[in-house]
Amino acid sequence: MSSMEEEFKAMTLGSSLGTAGESGVVLAKRPDKGGTLGRRIELCANLYRIKFRQSASIAHCDVNMVVVRDQPAKPGGGAINRETSIAVWDALVASNPDGLRKQLQSAAFDNRKNAFCLGRLDLPNGVKVFRVSLKPETPDRPPRLFDVKLQIAQVIDLGILDKFCSHQKAANMSDLAATAIMALDVLLRHGMFRRDELVPAAGGRKFLNKLQATPLGEGGQLLAGLFQSIRPTAVGMVLNADTAFSPFLVTGKLLDVANAIVGRMQSSASAGRGGRGGGRGGRGGARGGFGGSGAPSSTAPFNDSELHQLKRKLKGAKVRVTHRVDNRVFMIRGFGQPAGMQVVSIADRSGKKAGKRPSKPTAKEAAELAAKGKALPEREKAPTQTMSVADYFFKTYKRQVDPKLQCVELRGGHFVPIECLELVLGTVIPPTKLTANQAANMINVAAKPPAERRAAINAVRADTDVGPGSAAAAWGLEVDANMMKLVGRVLSPPQAVYSAACAKPRPSVANGPKFLQPGTALQHWAVVVFAPPHQAPPEPRVRDFFRTLTTVAKGKGMRIADDQPKSVVFWDGREDLGSPFKRACNSIIIGNTKNPKGVPPQMIFCLLNDVKQYDEVKRKAAFDLPVAVPTQALMIKKAFKFEGGSLDQYCANVCLKLNAKLGGVNSTIAPADLPGFVSGKTLILGADVTHPTGLGTPAAGSEGQVPPSIAAVVGQVDGAGMQYAAQVREQMGRKEFITDLEDMAVKLIKKYLVGSKGVKPTKVIMFRDGVSEGQFVGVVWEETTALKRAFRAIDPKWSPALTFIVCQKRHHVRFFAANPANKADVDRTGNLPPGLVVDTSVTHPYAFDFYSQAHAGLKGESLPVLRPCTAKPVRYTPLLDEGKHTSDQLQKLVNSLCFSFARATRSVSLVPVAYYADIVAAKARSFVTDDASTTASGATRARARDPRHIQEKLDRVFKGEVALGQTMWFI
């Protein structure tokens, strides 16, 4: 079953709800008719009702395409890419007789293995093989030939969808509904794949418009487009339409793009919105910016640092060769030596030809040769000659290339001069590979206030392929022009409890009441300034800043045993980043009269000059010191720009993180606002798995070694659910369920039992982040079984009620006020008020799910000014609920917990325990993976991907008495 089929199957969930699977898990049904708490509010959602002929019959066909003759593919071998599949299908439709052609013209093909035809397809015995011919890539080659086998798998009535959405019972309801949903989804996307201006992404869920490109700078561009998906809801089938944005590498000469990436020049490939005095590529910026300092020549060879950037950004990118008539497209694998030094071996065509292959020896002759220890005769090889790539290209293609510029290594081991390659459109930049400037530029374009977002979505809906003459029109498919209207509820904010047992609504600023519980007294600490000498603040100013910080900390109730750092260490700008860490650590351990036992540092504050230093600084603190030491990173440009009250506010925000890292509790939520959570009797867990990303990363099950994934589980260690510890493991790459969950849960439960003095919880609630619909059933079966094994490992007789809730952030459902002029229905940004809950109309027909928007919609804090964007709700799906919660209980619990995030005073979008797991997994990956290891070759890359090597590094950080795993170091 393909991933697409699994996803549509998961949308129905019908065959699993209320029944025990192979592990004995009973998937949860909605326990009631929805919640009732809160103020009702009229909404509209970016979901559009659809109509279709209920009586229509659809033939689902299996499609199998086989290469008969193609260049360079061999007959019968290799997968057929999407572009070729589309061309073959369209040729199949055009080449058939009128009757069959008419049926196929209204068919929908998913470009892989599935086609859906209106009515019963006229095929003898339900199967037929067609020979299809395509034009050759070059005139001197024969036509490309393919065999296409169509076989009818099943015939379904679209009326099954109305029955499914109204929760009627029928045999095979789930399977039939899933296939029908997939048919409609493929139908809407069929024509979109054939529009020249659109670039498909996300498996065909997104279509980006080439004509709507915005430069991001540094070799990137942002394409705008649309997202669309057919979904079942409690009120019928709907189209989920949304705006979509994806960052791509720019097209053009690879050398120009490479120069833009490393900041060598300002061109169309590198221009972007730079901030005032901004960084590389920005107006007034340094390297390569207008008015910036001098840059290396655009034709100079790339140095090691630049090659490192290029490998990181370009590995896996698609390029077209320009020195051959066929203009074939390849993927970049890496970079080689300069063209004048890179040596290739080629056949010596002027010399002796290869000999004929000897005839195959008989069995008797083979046995005699083996007895004599002789190998079977081989064909005599033709002689070869070696020459540089530069010489080879001049000799073979009459192309003069720069011998000093590095060659590009392509898939298949080919080395090609960089001047002979062009980047083709379609190479997405993964989020982890965006620079800070690119990310900020992307947010500026993509983030829109609700009114603008709503108008843009309606424009996207109008662009869907349902007009006259489309395949959708032949099916009678119509999409409503207006967004769906519904009713939601706004829950009241919870009461926050601070020191002196005072309960009050959660404050909106950080310099409010004192913390509920101070952490360990801060005594052994130091400061490291990671800035070149000419950019570093002087030591007196550094000490003044930390004097203010410790004063504010005392005002918040924190215990400060020493209000000045033991040392302020400066990085010299050239040495390894670990060296100043070691000097700072030694100043605390060696010769310190206040530390006669040589206790390691409690905290090292890191003043960063560049955000790019962050991951490396964290790695050095974890691995280059005798023990892993918690750090608190501060950006110099932020920390030293404030004065007076603004500085106090900034320091108060830092104290939120500092107190949590020292084991303190900033605040808690009043018990009355945590329904279903019984203090001392409820254990909350959060889990997430982060997967390797980036261009060229092999997918699960593909050829090539997939880098390991990182799994993180976070669990509370206090009865109030405000202090947490983490467990981290590496596991097989791209595997979604947590393979070592049992052991991780056992360790976290034992930490909880220490805090509870041995009293076991009667309820366990797991919030699981990062699971797509296609993985719901598999993950819940695997992970709930592992958790129950962990319970029995603690005590064979212990069986707490388990609730397993999946949290989904990556969806495209948005809510808007139906009456934005009503000031009670929107906040000052135009967004819906925090505390919004939606659990009717747009939810699953009968599965237990709801949407929660606990936060306000703001842009990222990296921008100079916070400006509104459209808030994104989180979808929560309780797949297992042995705790038998009502809708109101879970919805209020989730909303209240979102106000307890340790490093914020506002509510956050995701329940904090899942948020923490997401942070831990991402930080753990940065601990064990650096950019060099992901792009290097040979032993370095193999060692970086060796699970034993990764787990050794993780164990050093998270195990032992003095370890980051004992604190909320990740805050």
Automatic annotation (TrEMBL):
The record's annotation in InterPro entries points to: ArgoL1 (IPR014811), Argonaute_Mid_dom (IPR032473), Argonaute_N (IPR032474), PAZ_dom_sf (IPR036085), Piwi (IPR003165), Piwi_ago-like (IPR045246), RNaseH-like_sf (IPR012337), RNaseH_sf (IPR036397)
Q: Where is the Piwi domain?
A: 603-929
Residue ranges under compositional bias (Gly residues)? 272-294
Q: Where is this region: Disordered?
A: 268-303, 348-382
Q: A Gene Ontology MF term for this entry?
A: nucleic acid binding
Q: Which domain of life is it from?
A: Eukaryota
Q: Extract the SMART domains matched here.
A: DUF1785, Piwi
- Pfam families for the chain: ArgoL1 (PF08699), ArgoMid (PF16487), ArgoN (PF16486), Piwi (PF02171)
What is the originating organism of this protein?
A: Rhodotorula diobovata
**Protein name, please?**
Argonaute2 AGO2
